[in-house]
Amino acid sequence: ETGVTQTPRHLVMGMTNKKSLKCEQHLGHNAMYWYKQSAKKPLELMFVYSLEERVENNSVPSRFSPECPNSSHLFLHLHTLQPEDSALYLCASSAGLQVSDTQYFGPGTRLTVL
Amino acid sequence: DQQVKQNSPSLSVQEGRISILNCDYTNSMFDYFLWYKKYPAEGPTFLISISSIKDKNEDGRFTVFLNKSAKHLSLHIVPSQPGDSAVYFCAASAGTASKLTFGTGTRLQVTL
User: Residue A111 burial by CB count (10 A; 0-12/13-18/19+): exposed, middle or buried?
Assistant: First the structure.
Protein backbone atom coordinates (compact mmCIF):
# COMPACT_ATOMS: atom_id res chain seq x y z
CA GLU A 1 0.00 0.00 0.00
CA THR A 2 1.06 3.53 -0.58
CA GLY A 3 0.37 6.84 1.08
CA VAL A 4 -1.51 7.11 4.35
CA THR A 5 -4.01 4.43 5.36
CA GLN A 6 -6.53 4.48 8.18
CA THR A 7 -8.53 1.70 9.77
CA PRO A 8 -11.34 1.26 10.36
CA ARG A 9 -13.05 3.51 7.84
CA HIS A 10 -16.26 3.55 9.85
CA LEU A 11 -16.81 2.95 13.56
CA VAL A 12 -19.92 2.99 15.71
CA MET A 13 -19.39 2.79 19.44
CA GLY A 14 -21.28 3.25 22.65
CA MET A 15 -20.23 5.76 25.27
CA THR A 16 -18.79 3.04 27.51
CA ASN A 17 -16.77 1.30 24.81
CA LYS A 18 -13.03 1.43 24.28
CA LYS A 19 -11.79 1.43 20.71
CA SER A 20 -8.69 2.45 18.78
CA LEU A 21 -8.14 4.14 15.44
CA LYS A 22 -5.07 3.16 13.47
CA CYS A 23 -3.05 5.15 10.98
CA GLU A 24 -0.11 3.92 8.93
CA GLN A 25 2.05 5.93 6.56
CA HIS A 26 4.21 4.39 3.84
CA LEU A 27 5.98 7.61 2.86
CA GLY A 28 9.01 7.50 5.14
CA HIS A 29 7.82 10.61 6.95
CA ASN A 30 8.90 11.71 10.42
CA ALA A 31 5.82 13.65 11.53
CA MET A 32 2.26 12.42 12.02
CA TYR A 33 -0.95 14.22 12.95
CA TRP A 34 -4.49 13.58 14.16
CA TYR A 35 -7.23 15.96 13.07
CA LYS A 36 -10.93 16.05 13.88
CA GLN A 37 -13.56 17.32 11.45
CA SER A 38 -17.03 17.83 12.89
CA ALA A 39 -19.99 18.69 10.70
CA LYS A 40 -19.82 22.24 9.35
CA LYS A 41 -16.65 22.97 11.31
CA PRO A 42 -13.06 23.34 10.12
CA LEU A 43 -10.48 20.62 10.58
CA GLU A 44 -9.13 20.87 14.10
CA LEU A 45 -5.61 19.76 14.88
CA MET A 46 -5.59 17.37 17.85
CA PHE A 47 -2.09 15.94 18.18
CA VAL A 48 1.26 16.15 16.42
CA TYR A 49 4.11 13.68 16.71
CA SER A 50 7.61 14.17 15.39
CA LEU A 51 10.05 11.25 15.54
CA GLU A 52 7.63 9.50 17.89
CA GLU A 53 7.62 12.41 20.36
CA ARG A 54 4.40 14.35 20.94
CA VAL A 55 5.04 17.99 20.06
CA GLU A 56 1.49 19.33 20.08
CA ASN A 57 -1.59 18.62 22.14
CA ASN A 58 -4.33 21.11 21.42
CA SER A 59 -6.34 20.95 24.65
CA VAL A 60 -7.85 17.63 23.69
CA PRO A 61 -9.92 15.85 26.38
CA SER A 62 -8.17 12.93 28.06
CA ARG A 63 -10.75 10.50 26.68
CA PHE A 64 -8.64 10.72 23.50
CA SER A 65 -5.23 9.13 24.00
CA PRO A 66 -2.69 9.08 21.16
CA GLU A 67 0.14 6.61 20.75
CA CYS A 68 3.01 6.67 18.27
CA PRO A 69 5.07 3.47 18.64
CA ASN A 70 7.22 4.26 15.59
CA SER A 71 7.38 6.83 12.83
CA SER A 72 5.10 4.80 10.55
CA HIS A 73 2.23 4.14 12.94
CA LEU A 74 -0.10 6.35 14.90
CA PHE A 75 -3.02 5.29 17.07
CA LEU A 76 -5.86 7.17 18.71
CA HIS A 77 -7.28 5.30 21.68
CA LEU A 78 -10.86 6.20 22.54
CA HIS A 79 -12.69 5.62 25.80
CA THR A 80 -15.81 6.97 27.44
CA LEU A 81 -16.63 9.15 24.45
CA GLN A 82 -19.58 11.51 24.19
CA PRO A 83 -22.04 11.82 21.28
CA GLU A 84 -20.50 15.19 20.40
CA ASP A 85 -17.25 13.33 19.63
CA SER A 86 -18.93 11.90 16.53
CA ALA A 87 -16.86 13.23 13.63
CA LEU A 88 -14.44 12.35 10.86
CA TYR A 89 -10.99 11.67 12.28
CA LEU A 90 -8.18 12.28 9.83
CA CYS A 91 -4.57 11.22 10.09
CA ALA A 92 -1.81 12.97 8.18
CA SER A 93 1.94 12.72 7.82
CA SER A 94 4.69 15.00 6.58
CA ALA A 95 8.43 14.72 6.05
CA GLY A 96 9.09 17.15 8.88
CA LEU A 97 7.58 20.09 10.72
CA GLN A 98 8.65 22.79 8.28
CA VAL A 99 5.61 24.63 7.04
CA SER A 100 6.66 23.78 3.49
CA ASP A 101 6.53 20.05 4.33
CA THR A 102 3.29 19.02 2.70
CA GLN A 103 0.87 17.09 4.86
CA TYR A 104 -0.53 13.96 3.25
CA PHE A 105 -3.88 12.84 4.61
CA GLY A 106 -5.48 9.46 4.99
CA PRO A 107 -9.12 8.88 4.02
CA GLY A 108 -10.34 9.24 7.59
CA THR A 109 -12.38 7.22 10.06
CA ARG A 110 -16.04 8.20 10.36
CA LEU A 111 -16.85 7.79 14.06
CA THR A 112 -20.36 7.68 15.47
CA VAL A 113 -20.82 7.66 19.23
CA LEU A 114 -24.24 6.48 20.39
CA ASP B 1 -13.31 32.51 16.90
CA GLN B 2 -12.40 31.31 13.42
CA GLN B 3 -9.08 32.68 12.25
CA VAL B 4 -9.52 31.37 8.70
CA LYS B 5 -12.87 31.94 7.04
CA GLN B 6 -14.36 30.69 3.82
CA ASN B 7 -17.62 32.56 3.64
CA SER B 8 -19.02 30.81 0.58
CA PRO B 9 -20.04 27.26 1.45
CA SER B 10 -20.67 26.43 -2.19
CA LEU B 11 -19.95 27.63 -5.72
CA SER B 12 -21.22 26.46 -9.10
CA VAL B 13 -19.27 27.21 -12.27
CA GLN B 14 -19.68 26.15 -15.86
CA GLU B 15 -16.99 23.99 -17.44
CA GLY B 16 -14.34 26.09 -19.15
CA ARG B 17 -15.02 29.18 -17.05
CA ILE B 18 -12.95 30.54 -14.19
CA SER B 19 -13.59 29.37 -10.62
CA ILE B 20 -12.63 31.80 -7.87
CA LEU B 21 -12.57 30.57 -4.30
CA ASN B 22 -12.02 33.07 -1.52
CA CYS B 23 -10.52 32.92 1.94
CA ASP B 24 -10.09 35.57 4.64
CA TYR B 25 -7.92 35.39 7.71
CA THR B 26 -7.61 37.43 10.87
CA ASN B 27 -4.27 36.42 12.35
CA SER B 28 -1.51 38.73 11.09
CA MET B 29 1.10 36.18 12.23
CA PHE B 30 0.11 33.78 9.44
CA ASP B 31 2.93 33.66 6.92
CA TYR B 32 2.18 30.60 4.82
CA PHE B 33 -1.05 29.67 3.12
CA LEU B 34 -2.23 26.49 1.46
CA TRP B 35 -5.16 25.15 -0.49
CA TYR B 36 -6.32 21.56 -0.18
CA LYS B 37 -8.89 19.73 -2.26
CA LYS B 38 -11.09 16.94 -0.92
CA TYR B 39 -13.17 14.40 -2.82
CA PRO B 40 -15.87 12.39 -1.00
CA ALA B 41 -14.54 9.43 1.00
CA GLU B 42 -10.96 10.62 0.53
CA GLY B 43 -8.62 12.69 2.66
CA PRO B 44 -7.69 16.25 1.66
CA THR B 45 -4.89 16.51 -0.91
CA PHE B 46 -2.50 19.42 -1.18
CA LEU B 47 -3.08 21.67 -4.16
CA ILE B 48 -0.98 24.82 -4.00
CA SER B 49 0.65 27.09 -1.45
CA ILE B 50 2.01 30.61 -1.12
CA SER B 51 4.42 32.29 1.24
CA SER B 52 3.63 35.73 2.62
CA ILE B 53 6.65 37.16 0.80
CA LYS B 54 4.83 36.58 -2.50
CA ASP B 55 1.51 37.81 -3.81
CA LYS B 56 0.97 35.20 -6.49
CA ASN B 57 1.85 31.59 -7.13
CA GLU B 58 0.86 29.65 -10.21
CA ASP B 59 0.79 25.93 -10.95
CA GLY B 60 -0.82 24.98 -14.22
CA ARG B 61 -4.52 25.82 -14.11
CA PHE B 62 -4.30 26.87 -10.46
CA THR B 63 -3.21 30.29 -9.23
CA VAL B 64 -3.28 31.56 -5.66
CA PHE B 65 -3.32 35.29 -4.96
CA LEU B 66 -2.45 36.79 -1.59
CA ASN B 67 -3.46 40.29 -0.48
CA LYS B 68 -1.76 40.78 2.87
CA SER B 69 -3.18 44.21 3.55
CA ALA B 70 -6.71 42.85 3.13
CA LYS B 71 -5.83 39.53 4.81
CA HIS B 72 -7.39 37.79 1.85
CA LEU B 73 -6.37 35.03 -0.48
CA SER B 74 -8.07 33.49 -3.45
CA LEU B 75 -7.68 30.42 -5.61
CA HIS B 76 -8.33 30.75 -9.33
CA ILE B 77 -8.94 27.69 -11.48
CA VAL B 78 -8.81 28.32 -15.21
CA PRO B 79 -10.31 26.64 -17.12
CA SER B 80 -12.56 24.76 -14.70
CA GLN B 81 -13.11 21.07 -15.41
CA PRO B 82 -15.75 18.64 -14.09
CA GLY B 83 -12.97 16.77 -12.23
CA ASP B 84 -12.36 19.92 -10.20
CA SER B 85 -15.70 19.37 -8.43
CA ALA B 86 -14.67 18.89 -4.81
CA VAL B 87 -14.49 20.69 -1.47
CA TYR B 88 -11.65 23.19 -1.28
CA PHE B 89 -10.06 24.08 2.04
CA CYS B 90 -7.94 27.10 2.72
CA ALA B 91 -5.31 26.73 5.47
CA ALA B 92 -2.80 29.02 7.11
CA SER B 93 0.26 28.61 9.26
CA ALA B 94 2.29 30.84 11.55
CA GLY B 95 5.67 29.32 10.86
CA THR B 96 5.26 25.64 11.55
CA ALA B 97 3.35 22.74 10.08
CA SER B 98 2.23 21.77 13.57
CA LYS B 99 0.01 24.88 13.72
CA LEU B 100 -2.06 24.62 10.55
CA THR B 101 -5.45 26.35 10.80
CA PHE B 102 -8.13 25.39 8.30
CA GLY B 103 -11.24 27.08 6.97
CA THR B 104 -14.59 25.31 6.76
CA GLY B 105 -14.32 24.65 3.03
CA THR B 106 -16.11 25.64 -0.17
CA ARG B 107 -17.86 23.02 -2.26
CA LEU B 108 -17.16 23.63 -5.95
CA GLN B 109 -19.45 22.14 -8.56
CA VAL B 110 -18.30 22.39 -12.15
CA THR B 111 -21.21 21.81 -14.50
CA LEU B 112 -21.14 20.71 -18.12
Answer: buried
